[in-house]
Amino acid sequence: MSGIFFIIAEECRFRKVRDGGKKGYYMEFVPKWIAWEITRRCNLRCVHCRSSSEMGIKGHPDFSTEEAFRVLDDIVSYATPVVVLSGGEPLTRPDVFEIAKYGTGKGLRMGG
Questions:
Q1: Average pLDDT score, the chain
Q2: How many whole angstroms separate alpha carbon 34 and alpha carbon 17?
Q3: Coil, strand, or helix at residue 7?
Q4: What is the rounded CA–CA span in Å between residue 109 and residue 25?
Q5: What's the pLDDT score for residue 45?
Q6: Considering the domain boundaries, does residue 19 fall inside one?
Q7: What is the span of the domain harbouring residue 55?
Q8: Domain for residue 78, yes or no?
Q9: Which of 4, 10, 15, 89 gives a 20 to 30 Å CA spacing to 40?
Q10: Alpha-carbon distance 71 to 28, whole Å?
């Protein structure tokens, strides 16, 4: 599992079909802003929070740093949106800054 994603804004582009005898256009949706829940852990218990996060989440371990890098590689392969690292509390992950730096190095605007 690579976390929960929320694609907040998309850009719609019209592309011309370039397939042999077919003619026409198709719509391509490109994400502009993605919120990525990189952990469910949290050190708080806010009543307004929809994630019901805790410090120890049974059955939902955090994914590895390498898997996070693969997800960012996948995102960059089709778009360059703003990626917001969310959670739980993203700062409970010891590699949160490493993930953000990797995404920035790939040309993504990273936030948290």
A1: 82
A2: 28
A3: strand
A4: 30
A5: 77
A6: no
A7: 32-111
A8: yes
A9: 10
A10: 21
Half-sphere exposure of 100 (CA within 13 A, CB side): 16
Angstrom distance (rounded) from CA 22 to CA 3: 39
The token duo for 19 is: 């397939």
Tokens at 93, concatenated? 């992950």
| Lowest mean pLDDT, pick from 31-40, 45-54, 81-90 | 45-54
Query: Mean pLDDT across the stretch 76-83?
Result: 92
> Could you give the C-alpha distances from 34 to 6, 54, 58, 61, 112, in angstroms and in order?
6, 23, 26, 21, 11
Q: Is residue 61 a part of any domain in this protein?
A: yes
Query: Cα separation of 112 and 107, whole Å?
Result: 16
In a domain, 69, yes or no: yes
Residue range 60-86: mean pLDDT, rounded: 91
Domain count, the chain: 1
Q: Is the pLDDT of residue 93 over 80?
A: yes
